[in-house]
Write a structure and sequence with these properties.
single chain, alpha/beta, 5-stranded mixed β-sheet, two-stranded antiparallel ribbon, elongated
């Protein structure tokens, strides 16, 4: 079963593919900033009944006119079968798209990251037919973003750093910086990166720290915290909608509504009762008739 942490670790590159170039620029491996990025199908299934999928696949076009494929794999632990799968993926991508592929592996622990970074040589010792050299990002080389102003300057990178360092005992410092930075952007953008952060942190202790920060902020996002808050919001919205519908029906039928009746309708917080009143509003001769059997 694919974990939420696994999904967030590669999906963040869909939100801002530029993280790839910016991060490796700090490591002395320059990649030209993209001028456009296309999200490509991740299904590499062949005609034979053998399904192969990448986590994220992007086509990156640069200002110099060159293009390359960026295959992103989120790796949570050592997997002896992964190296051969990656070799297949890269060969298939090159044959299918006629573009040079780059494999990026993102990890949350240093042991897995260093295992993933080891090159795979395919072929006899005297002639290496193919060598797979993944680029790897993990807590050993992704800089921690602990300053709110730095996080605000590059929220996608700050989010990725917070996720990558999610198992760090000092992760709360990064999360607080990110939470502060998210208040500087529009709600839609903040919502995306709030959710990615919670999903990316998975079941780490840092995830509870993040949920507590977001609960204090009362921000609506689609993860575990948001589901509870959103349900409360849906209930409140349903109640308010029913109350307004009752008043509109009565007014449309030309029935006068006293202030006492209006207050009783708008003060009611029971959605089921309001639904009964709404059905009666369609036939009532007086506004007060909707309460007749209460």
């Amino acid at each position: 079963m694919v974990s939420s942490s696994h999904e967030a670790m590669h999906r963040i590159f869909q939100e801002d593919p530029g993280i790839f170039a910016r991060t490796f620029d700090t490591l002395g491996i320059p990649f030209t900033d993209p001028v456009s990025v296309s999200l490509l199908p991740t299904d590499l299934t062949e005609i034979q009944p053998l399904e192969r999928r990448l986590d994220t696949l992007l086509q990156v076009d640069t200002a110099q006119g060159g293009s390359y494929l960026l295959a992103v794999e989120a790796q949570g632990r050592k997997d002896p079968g992964k190296h051969s799968s990656w070799a297949y993926h890269l060969s298939h991508l090159y044959a299918k798209y006629a573009m040079p592929p780059v494999l990026l592996v993102v990890c949350q622990d240093e042991t897995t990251a260093r295992w993933a970074a080891a090159p795979l040589h395919i072929g006899p010792p005297q002639w290496r037919t193919l060598t797979v050299r993944p680029l790897v990002l993990g807590p050993h080389n992704v800089p921690a973003v602990t300053d709110p102003s730095a996080a605000a300057r590059d929220i996608p990178l700050a989010t990725f750093a917070a996720i990558t360092h999610g198992k760090n005992p000092n992760a709360d410092t990064m999360l607080r910086a990110l939470a502060t930075a998210l208040k500087t952007v529009d709600e839609d953008t903040a919502t995306v990166f709030r959710e990615l952060t919670e999903l990316g942190l998975g079941k780490t202790p840092a995830a509870q720290i993040w949920r507590d920060l977001m609960a204090i902020d009362l921000s609506f996002f689609r993860s575990e915290t948001s589901q509870k808050l959103r349900e409360e919001g849906r209930t409140a919205g349903c109640v308010e909608g029913h109350a307004q519908s009752i008043l509109l029906v009565l007014e449309a039928r030309g029935i006068g509504i006293s202030q006492e009746t209006r207050d009783r309708i708008t003060d009611c917080d029971d959605a089921e009762v309001l639904r009964h009143w709404l059905s009666r509003a369609a036939t009532a001769t007086r506004a007060e008739d909707i309460f007749a059997r209460e």
